[in-house]
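Teaching note: in complex prediction, the entire set of molecules is handled at once rather than each chain in isolation. The prompt given to students was simply: 'Predict the structure of this complex.' The entities are:
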Amino acid sequence: MNRPPGPEQRASALLGLLMVVAGVVVLVDAARLPGSDEALGPAAAPTLIGVLLGLLGGGLLVQARGSLRTGNGKPRRLWRLTALVATLLAFAFLLPIMGFVFCAAVLFVSAALLLGAPHPARVVAYGWTLAVVVFLVFDVLIGLSLPAGPWGF
Amino acid sequence: MGFADALAPANLLWALVGVTIGVAVGALPGIGPAPAVALLLPLTFRLDPTAALIMFAGVYYGGSSASVLLGTHASLEVNRVAPIGRFVGGTIGAVALLVAAPFVAGIAVHFGPPEYVALMAVVFATVSALAGPSLLKGAASLVIGAAIGLVGQNRLTFGMPSLFDGIDVVVVVIALFALGGTFAHLVEGTGESRFEPVRGKPVLSREDFRRSWPAWLRGTALGFPFGAKVSAYLSYRVEKRLSRNSGAIEGVAGPAAALSAASVGALLPLLAIGLPTSATAAVILTAFPSYGLQPGPQLFSESGDLVWALIASLFVGHILLLALTLSPARVRLPTIPAYGIHAGVLVFACLGAFAAGGTIAALVVLTALGLVGLLMREAGVPVAPAVVGLVLAPSAEQQLRRALASSEGDWTVLVSSPLTVTLWIVAVLVLLTPLVVALRASRRS
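The expected output is the structure of the full assembly:
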């Protein structure tokens, strides 16, 4: 709303493009579904949604047309986003190996630093405290059985 | 009968937990009641259903009004007239719910699949047309949600067994709302910012009260039937037009009552018909089956105690909410820096997704959908319609299939009764509303 129109238009165009691609994927997937003698087979809903994805995505693209040609605004901090996504994926794959407390603490610290936290030492302390408290409350108290690392927590 | 249950110490405690979480997530930037309920879902499966629903409702009405108010015009006026406005809107809304719910459920019992299909069409039209800045963006969001809802069984699984059971609603809601918000924060680079709480004594003067009470009542009347987004806007416009002086107090009092009444009003279709009309209501609906409850009008006959206890808890909860928002404790809460809040949200998001899915795949899906949420947010596409589409589109397909099976493939069954015809006309009119508004605006300028 109070953001400049440039980035919003670009994001709109990108989302539209993504929706068109997703629409094609949904339609291709629907085409290989077995037919049925029902009035509404399993392919009917995906076909409708695939078409709608394509139409609405195309609409967003048309609405945001031209935005891709205009110059960039301020440099976006996309590398930070990439780093955070990598951290999240690392969290996902390391969780069963390293245990919840370690992974959650690392996730908190990396995210906070990427978001611009000023005191690294303090953030590390916060991260470990939060991870331990969450583990105690949800694993020990509520019995959610979170994955434990080689050191048992 | 319901009050006895709602006043049981345990349920009173859960109502307090609910409104406290609601106020907290409402006051913190970038989080709202929908992801909060989604995060609580997997963590409370072992709770008694009544207690869980009382807590979820508390998060809903505790959080839905605070977020909008504090986000836009945090000022002393908000602090003075908003808490009581919320109390008035919520309590009158609860009375309306108490009276209307059995009546609506009594009618809805006779609904067949064609009526449900038509009702869902109305909901789809409403959320697309009214939730966002434009019909195109609202509808895009709805269809994105519906597409995610397709995944499962033999559709769109790409041979991956982890996708066979579909993508958990909890994972989608946490990803689109919480992760999307955190990612946006990261890209904007506003991590160093602090959320400044409103200072000043929340004491209501006689003058404030005189100016506020008509606005509270008007806001309530708009909020209960029309939902949060529309009624807050309408109420603000109405108060600005009616007030002779600045209208600052009325312009806060009205929307506060409207938002509170709207969150209670959304419980009417949810409980009496089994139909969610907002993102939070959609998340609450997905909790019903895991507690062994069948949402819909039969809920009143099958689990009457639970419904009455839930409605009674609204009265108790709004008193708790009033006490909580007027107490000095809440002022201390939001002084946590933004980076701490968002990093903590990420930890809880991963915890919730893991608890809901129990697999690594759920966490990978969470991250991917978080990026979709970021893109939607950046593009100005509202997220709430996606959640409604995700929850409601599969059941719309199911009801449509049932309707067509009963009529042996004759599509005219969808418009075979006066009620269905009326509902379809309403759906079309709602879709036309943004076009008419745009046309009038362009003619005026």
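Point out the following to students. DSSP finds five helices and no strands in chain A. Chain A has two domains: 5-63, 78-141.
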